Each structure stands twice: as structure tokens, then as C-alpha cells.
Amino acid sequence: MKSNEIKNEFIARRGLGESYKTISMKLSVSEKTLKQWGGKFADKIRQAQDDGLRVAIDLHNLAKSGRLQKVAMELDRIDAELDKRDLSSVPASKLVMMKFSGIELIGKIIGPEGKADVDSRSPWDAMMAFMSAERLPDGDDKESD
Q1: Residue 136 main-chain phi, psi, to 5 deg
Q2: Which of 11, 19, 115, 124 is at 20 to 30 A from 134, Cα to Cα?
Q3: DSSP 3-state of 141
Q4: Which helix H or strand E contains 38, and what residues bound it?
Q5: pTM of the full predicted structure?
Q6: Which positions ≥6 away from 129 have C-beta within 8 Å?
Q7: What is the pLDDT of residues 78-90, one digit of tens each?
Q8: For residues 131 and 93, is the Cβ–Cβ distance under 8 A?
Q9: Which carries the bigger pLDDT value, residue 140 or residue 30?
Q10: 45 class by beta-carbon count within 10 Å (0-12 exposed, 13-18 middle, 19+ buried)
């Protein structure tokens, strides 16, 4: 009779998708026995698969959240630095492009589920709409070196 520890490891490994052959070599249990356990513990194996999937999704969401937080922190730092500076020499078109590039990056991190919260226009289209709304005084859209 095999120990419960070996059976639990079998369930965990099958839940991760390991083959009977691989598990057989690692646990020193015949493939025939493992296949019998596969039928006997099918519900527990499915539960292990579901648990593994949930962990993977949680890790993905955590990583996504971390990237979003990092980009937001960088945008905050840029905003703080820009607040200190006289931006009169920077063309408005460049400022708008910088802003929309940051917003676009956030949209890419958030993904399609957050699309409604992010301007769906390209940065160029958004800039052109901004400029056509006559927000820029004459001459401010010229680039300077």
C-alpha cells in the first residue's frame, strides 16, 4: 500500500499536467498503478487543475497590477517634474503626444476589459482632435529644436 504522501504528490503532479510516465519515474510507482489512481482520484485531480489555474490567474493579475502601478508611479513622477518646469518652450503637440502615450500604455496594460475607461483613439487622432478644437494658440504647434 502506497503512502498518502505519495498519492497526494501524484494528484498534485497530475493536476499540473505531468504524464503518467514522468510521475512514475519521479515517484517510483508503476504506470499501471498511477492510471488506476487517475480514475480513483479524478475529482481531486480536476480540483488540483482548477486550483492551479486560479493561482496562475491570480499571479497574472498581480503582475498586471504591478505593471500598471509602476507605470502610474512613473507618470506621477513625470507630472511632478513637469509641474516644476516652465513648459512654454515645449510645443503643445509634443506635450499632448506625451500625455496620450502614457494613457495608451495604461490602456495596453489594462487590456480589452478596461477599454471603456481609456480613450480608444490613437495618440495621433487624439492629438489632431485636440488641435482642431482650437485649444492651441496660433504658432504653438510648431516644433522647435
Answers
A1: -100, 130
A2: 115
A3: coil
A4: helix 31-40
A5: 0.41
A6: 121
A7: 778 777 877 778 7
A8: yes
A9: 30
A10: buried
